UniProtKB/TrEMBL annotation:
Hydrolase keyword on record: yes
Start and end residues of each Glycoside hydrolase family 31 TIM barrel domain: 164-523
Cross-referenced PANTHER family: ALPHA-GLUCOSIDASE (PTHR22762)
Keyword vocabulary terms for this entry: Glycosidase, Hydrolase
Pfam family, one: Glyco_hydro_31_3rd
Protein name: Alpha-glucosidase
Amino acid sequence: MKAFDIAEGIKVLVYGEPMDTGAVVCRRGNETVAAGAFVVETGPEASRLSLGLGMKDIVYGLGANLGGINKRGRKYESYCTDEPVHSEEKKRLYAAHNFLMVAGDEVMGFFIDFPGLISYDIGCSDKDALIIDVAGTDFAVYEIEGRNEDEVVQRFHSIIGRSYVPPRWGLGYFQSRWGYETSKDVRRVRKSFDDLQIPLEGIYLDLDYMEDFKDFSVSDERFPDMEEMVREFREDGVYIIPIIDAGVKIEKGYDIYEEGIIGDHFVKTEAGKPYVAAVWPGKVHLPDFLRPETRKWWGEKYKVLTDLGIEGFWNDMNEPAIFYDEEELEKAVDAAIASKGANLGVLKYFELKDLFKDMGNRERYYRTFYHQVDGKVVVNEKVHNLYGQNMTVAAGEGLRKILGKRHVLISRASSTGMHRHSGIWTGDNSSWWSHLELNVRMMPSVNMAGFYYVGADTGGFGNSTTWELLTRWLQFSAFTPLLRNHSAIGNDFQEPYIFGEEVTSWNREIIRARYSLIPYIYSEMMKSVIDGSMMFRPLSFLYKDESSRDTEDQLLLGKELMLAPVTRPNASGRTAYLPEEMAEVTLKDGKAAMEVVHAGLRRFEYGLDSLKFYLRKDSILPYCTPAKNTMSLDIGKLHAIAFVDRVAEYELYDDDGESYGYENGESFTTAIKVTRHGQDFSVEVRNDNPKVMEIAVDILGTDGVRARKTITI
């Protein structure tokens, strides 16, 4: 083991000869003599890291994985896996985010930089121990100290680099479904939103738009007017965002397949032949995204669709998911044929059933194909978590070069390092109340891992949602940067207008409220990206009492808001814990109403026709009049609410919303300050944003005194 200083409070311990995964962007400093926090045992092919846990230590992190905000008492695995039915017994999901933080008397963060399987036993087998099993001997452990949780996270983000930023329109409301089978279906959905005056930013297209599931193709039969539709929609501020999958159909004459063969772009078997897997088109080859030449080739292919006017994409099936390979399919079919006419007992029946049922994503598959990495042949199992990352790096780099401006890009599979190139959705969830709860708990963890443009499939992807679950989920997703309602073919439709007039009116109001909050959400996302702070935080980051430490269904958003979503059915409200006095805010009909609520455990009513949340003391929330999309959003006449004890301040960040100028500090600031003077208040505004002309501030004092001040700029 060798140890190196990185920066103040950060060191790295290097075991063996780890590969460069692309996660860390900083350089190592001088070699130092330092012991690590873990006890490390290294064997011939694997390593174990052990750390004692104090009774009250909280363990945070692991990004988009299962469990609570506090990860104690459970086992986890970091190995990107297509796992749509992520029920309680599962250990792994689509992402591999290997940052975790132990907070007790002291706070320390750890990042395990390793591209293969990592298993975590966090106070499960032994309640007083954190045990990490690394499936290899070449890895690095970054240890990060800090005065508190926020400082540790910021220091971690300083070594992994600044996160991807979407254009402002990426924060709008998006409708999606696997099952919009024709352009007529897509046009019908868009017209329904228009007719019902529900805001709409864009429509995601699943596999339906492709010709025979072939990447970078458009079906002439089902989408004959794709370019015309994209142009028409775009003129009205509505975007089309198509899917791209990792598997390339094996078909003579298909240009992507032919170029992939000629350019040697596909992963290989041990014998050196292109590996054959199977996904949506049937038999496919998988591009070797770990090769720079393949990433460049793949990234340039997005131009086929950007030439149609498309400016956003979602990368899917890039764990990579594999339905079957030829060997497993043949084995299962042979067993079925041999069983024809047989009297199968229970054991033989289950044995036969499992041959088919468990055929997808078998771990054996990932031990049978190989990558070219820096001139070496490496089996996928050893670098598995880099596959989806490098597919998305290819897309991000290609789109930046092609478009020359920001684009929307999200990926299903991810690992740390990919955060610099795209956002993520949290995977193929289900229409379960427990998955709404999981969405809430995931948000701080994915922020810790470096991802800000994040959201879940609102309403749930698998199974059929209910009107109540969709509306309650919208009430939470209204605050997440990515807001996409997505569902699967074979399940009921779940557009916000599906469940009758009354529910439609509620969902319309929630989506309109989201558009009112976009200036604030965009501001908070950008400030987090720039300074490496977290956008969503657990209450326990700020408040150190036992109730805050135990609370996992409420979150802090920015420095101003506390969210307390309803995550149970048939509920007219909920009980929330307020660590301090706050203002309860109801946002409805484009207006925000405030009431003082004292600290403690409080029951509050939360209807289905508005947004309700809490504004912290001496805080200001800016918002605007809702609009049908971001192109129509106007911040010329800005609104704000302030809950004031003595002095409240807020700086609203803004920029052009589409260029990379923010990387060079090109931005605008509208700074609002409200000061209490006895029974009155004064408002000061410092502004360099030419779009802001007027600010109307509604003020609530902690003693209930109210005032309204309007500032003309």
